[in-house]
Each structure stands twice: as structure tokens, then as C-alpha cells.
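So, read this over?
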Amino acid sequence: MQRTCANCGQPMSPAGRVPRDGVSFCYAPDCRRVADRLKHQRYMADPERRARFNAYQNSRRQARPIPQADPSLPPLGLMVYDADGVPQCHICGRFYRGLGLHISRGHRVPVDEYRERFGLKAGQPLVSLETSRLHSGRISKTIAEGKLGPRPDLLPRGATRGHTTRLQARISNA
């Protein structure tokens, strides 16, 4: 007896999709969506799985920026740029093309501490958007030319620093 798709009614090959409840779906895109929706509904029926799924979804959401007491200062967790793409300091509210230099010299605050205190990501650039594009272009060009490779202080797993492994000794003696 040949099976038919529960969604479109087309005859199916033996390799059709068969969910746990025995209903078969073909591989047509619309039928796949229906099958996936049913699978998701069954998955979400289990309270433990639903809780894991909700926790995952919540972890992926971006935190909302928190306004500072002084409304002229940018909110915590968000970099604010002016019309020219120059970032605003969270401490004094002024705009600087090289904000990192201003923070470390002007406010005597280490850049890492500044990022942590104001809820910025570790990789958040503290320079103007134009400067960031210039740096990105230079690095891309340097990598493409082969001038910038893996860092020598970060050796792959099993690599030694100046010591000869037994295999290396055997190869060099052979």
C-alpha cells in the first residue's frame, strides 16, 4: 500500500517523512512547513522542553539600554554617535574621534573598566565609524597579502615551545 501525504494528498515514496504519530508528509516545501510546525507543537507540549526553549530565547534577546541620571549622557549599554559618526563619552558627554584615548588620558579610566562600567561589549570600537572602517580595510588588506597570520604565542594544541617532540626527533634523525 502506497502512502499519501497528509497535507497535499500526493503519493509518497517510501523515504517520506513519518513523524511519531504515524502521519506522513512529502518533501514539498509547504508540506515540510506543516510537518515542522506539528513537530514544534509536540516539542513545546513538554513543559521541561518549553522551559529550556524559553530560557534559550531569553538569552538571545538584547538587553535594553538603561538611561543615566543625566539625560545629556548616553544610556548604559549603548554607544551614541553624532551625525558624523563620532562616539559620545559616557562620562562627560563630549564627542571624540578617538574615545579610547580620551577615556584613558582625560578621565584616567582604563578602557576595559570603562566598557564594563557602562555595559559595552568587549569588542565595541571606541573610535569614530570612519576610523573603524579605515582600520577594518587595512586589516583585511594585510590579511589578504599574507602579512598577518596566526599569532606565534598561540600555538595549536599539542605544539611545543622550543622543545622537540619525539616524532620531530625521529623525523630529523631518519
In short: The radius of gyration is 28 Å. The chain has a mean pLDDT of 82. The chain has two domains: 1-61, 63-148. The CA atoms of residues 155 and 162 lie 11 Å apart.
